[in-house]
Amino acid sequence: MGHQITITIDGPAGVGKSTLGRRLAQALGYRYVDSGALYRAVAWQAQNADLDPADPDAVARMLADFQPRVHANSRGFHVAAGGREITPELRTPAVTQASSRVATQPRVREWVNRFLQTIARDGGVVAEGRDLGSVVFPNAEVKFYLDADLATRASRRQREWQAGGGDPGLDQMQTDIAARDHQDKTRREAPLTVPQGAHYLDTTKLQPDEVATQCLALIRENLGARAIGI
Description:
Strand content: 15-25%
CATH class: Alpha Beta
Number of helices: 10
Number of strands: 8
């Protein structure tokens, strides 16, 4: 295999970052890295320690001793804490809500960023999130920013919740996503933005296979098949 690079995928909720990340990782034989899972893990730990996830000092003290184990491969990103895997628990509504609170805290973001940079120090990763190409990996060799209209994103996220047994209303889902968009784009620490040098893709009318095909073509166009071993 040739030189392994770092690929970032940023964008708001419901644009298909996770789906694209896994597909690219599998196609390239890279590790898939989900930054959101680490914020969720912090929220999960705060809840289990009976801490208020909105209390930055309490959460910061907790992080001093929080050492989750992460296993990343081309098919997934798994997190373990307290002697067991907690990945399925990170998608519950309670953890999701708490994660949006901890994600605004500078010391949490610093902790997550260091964790991510350690994972990706040797390259060979496809990392997705909201500030990866702009803040965490500003020198990533290839960056993508995905977008889609609000109605499409809400519908996609609703189907995800329904597949997991939930039944959120579409109007409420759209309201929640719009609120998260506003929070992400206006926060002081690492606001959601299109990273410098990123390829912008609107996925509103695209199927996952189409998005992955376009992105793989852009990777090859930018670096050449020989440079990345594909």
